[in-house]
Amino acid sequence: KSEDIPAPSKNIDLEMKQLQCKLKNSNNEITKQSTTIKSLKNEVQEKEERIRELQAKISRLERNLNMKRHLIEDLRSRLKANQENEKTSNETLESLERKVRALAEDCSNKKTSIDSLKQRLNVATKEKSQYEQMYHKAKEELEKKDLKLTNLESKMIETECAMTELETTASQQLHGLAKQSGQALETVQKKLLLTSDKVEEFITFVK
Predict the structure, then answer these.
(1) Which intervals of the chain form a coiled coil (predicted)?
(2) Model pTM?
(3) Of 52-61, 111-120, 157-166, which has the strongest mean pLDDT?
(4) What is the rounded distance in angstroms from the CA atom of residue 75 to the CA atom of residue 39?
(5) Is residue 184 within 8 Å of 123, Cβ to Cβ?
């Protein structure tokens, strides 16, 4: 029996060494696994932190998106209101342009009438000047005839009658012409005042 003991002891030592090697390898593997696990945990934490940041960013983006949607809806409603206001303004502008064209045409017609009245007034003024010249000429001739009457006493009665008739006729003609000219001037002045009022109303309306 004492001779058989050393053989198993060698096997046990060998097995012990193998088991120690395996244990060492296992410990090394466990250490590696632990390191890997720690690394993975850190990576998981980083991922979770990144996920939280992304979720916060998504929340901010959703809020911004909602705000932009509300803003777009508000802008659309404003655009619609502005388009309606623009349509109303265009209709009003077209109506005003039609009124302005009508008033401009009326003003042009009245201007033509005023020019015609001015021409008639100029003609009347010229005629009045001519009659005044005729009157002065007749008056000068009358004075000359008065001088002749003083020298021709024999023909005084006949000449005085003729001169009286001539003076009466000239006075009546001049009085009639002066009256007609005065009436024409009053009519023209009234029309000019009325036209001036219309032009002032048109200028006020255009302003």
Answers:
(1) 9-169
(2) 0.33
(3) 52-61
(4) 52
(5) no
